[in-house]
Each structure stands twice: as C-alpha cells, then as structure tokens.
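The instructor's notes for this session suggest beginning with a concrete chain rather than abstract definitions. Hand out the sequence below and ask the class to guess, before any prediction is shown, which regions might be ordered.
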Amino acid sequence: MSKTIRAAGGVVWRPAQDHASNSAIEVAVVHRPRYDDWSLPKGKLGAGESLLDGALREVFEETGYRVRPGRALGDVNYLKTSNGQPREKVVHYWAMEAVGGAFTPSREVDELMWISPEGAEALLTRSTDREILERFASGPVRTGTVLLVRHATAGDRNAWKGDDRIRPLDENGRDQAEELVRLLSRFEVQKLVAADFLRCIETLKPLADSIGLEIEEEPLLSEAGFPGHEREAVEAIRRLGDHDDAVAACSQRQVIPELVQKLAEQDEVELPDPLKYKKASVWSLSFEGEKLVGAEYFPPPQLG
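After discussion, reveal the predicted structure:
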C-alpha cells in the first residue's frame, strides 16, 4: 500500500444564532461540489506542515472562519483510492470555536451551513465525520486549556558551575523558545506561568514579548518546589484550567510526568502510550472546570 495520507480538520462551533433553536450551539458543515457531499472542514497537510497548522489552515480555507482550538477529538482512518491505488488516510480533529470571519463560496466549497449537532449528524455524508461529531457531542464544548511546556535545552547540568536556578537556555534552546511561539499562540494564550528557574522563564519569554504578557513565577512547578507538594501543584494546574482562555505553564522533567499522570489517573483520562516529555515539548491539557477531560502531546518544534 502507498504512503499514508495525513490530514486534519475540526468540528467548528459557535453559540446558536437561531433563537428558535433548542440547541445551545451550532456547528459548521460544508458542501463540496466535487464530491457532492456534506463534510466537516478538513484537508491534507502540506509538505512539512504540522497537524494543528494544517487543521487551522484547512478550516479557514473551507469556512472563512478564524478558530480557537480546544479539546482534541482524535483520528479517523479510512482507505482512499488514488490513481487506482488504495492509500490509508488518517485525519486528526479538534473542537474549534469560531472567533471571527465569514464564509465565501469557492470552487472547493460552495455552501456552508450552521446547524445543530443533531441536524449535522443527519446531514453529514460520511460515517467517519459522524463518528467525530459524536466524540465532540459526548464531551464538553467549551474547555479551558493548560499548555504544559517542558523548558527548552539549557546545556549540560553537570558542566554548569553556578546556581542551577540561573542556568540559561543554550543557543538551540533559544531557537526552540522562538519556534514554540508558533504553536502556543494558536491557542490564544491569555496567561503565562513558569517555574522560578531561569530556563523556564526564558522558554516563555519570546511568547510573552509577542503577546505583551508578564510571566508569573510559580515555585510549585519547579524541581525544587514540587517534591512534597504534589497535591498543591495538581490543584494549581486545575485552577489554571478552570478558565475559558488558554494558559501556558513552563515546568521541568522532574515535575511534568508525575503532574500529568496524577491528573489523568484522578479524572480517568486515557493518555497516549508511550508517554513522552522531551525538552521544548508541550502537553495540551483540556479542562471542564477543574476536571481534566483530555490530554494531547505536541513534540518539540523542528528547527531549520
């Protein structure tokens, strides 16, 4: 079988505009004249494009709406025949809140309909789209997001002769911090928190500069403040998640694995296997109030 086709999209939603509707929200469903079908907005990734970047681009191209990503909805897989050859297609989805824009018909999408989730289920052509819509409808619509970042590279701990709290990012780490702005800004971060170690603060500094926010220091997220205060650290992350807006929080390898696993175990959220926590990687944690309802891992940004 030929190489897998990677694609991404979203269940785009907004508060119901039709006051006669019994639904609190409505979702966007698009008509593609080439296939004469009704579909969730999605499309193939470009060369070197990440899943999230591809999803946001395709959603904007097909709907005209800018969106804020929320809870990850997972993948669907199916076979697509191209030039007589079957190819596996894997599409990854997020819940996405429409925050502005307007639809303009195009050659690829000639109609967009805002409709209740129940109406969309009846309208969608493909069973895989209905499966994603069911995942969306079975969980919370609006969620808070904590983007739990492991600090970028900061040289060799053993080679550093000074106070480890002030060990800075190395050149590669500074480049990683700059590249993280692209991912983190997709979530429209409104609050920045970092462990009180210089390398954690420096990891969020480019984002802070780009969006004009101050970085709040939180000792509970550091390898010095976390041991013996695990419960308080978990509660601190829950409080950060109990907002509609996204929060970026930078911590360390000695903290993040236990923090993520405790949250997942307490709220019975399944985590991917194997778990990863590389430097400059990000865990996107979705909350309904203070309850964790989803977790997704983003690998470190690719440099050069």
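Then share the key points. The two ends are 31 Å apart (CA to CA). The longest helix spans residues 171-185.
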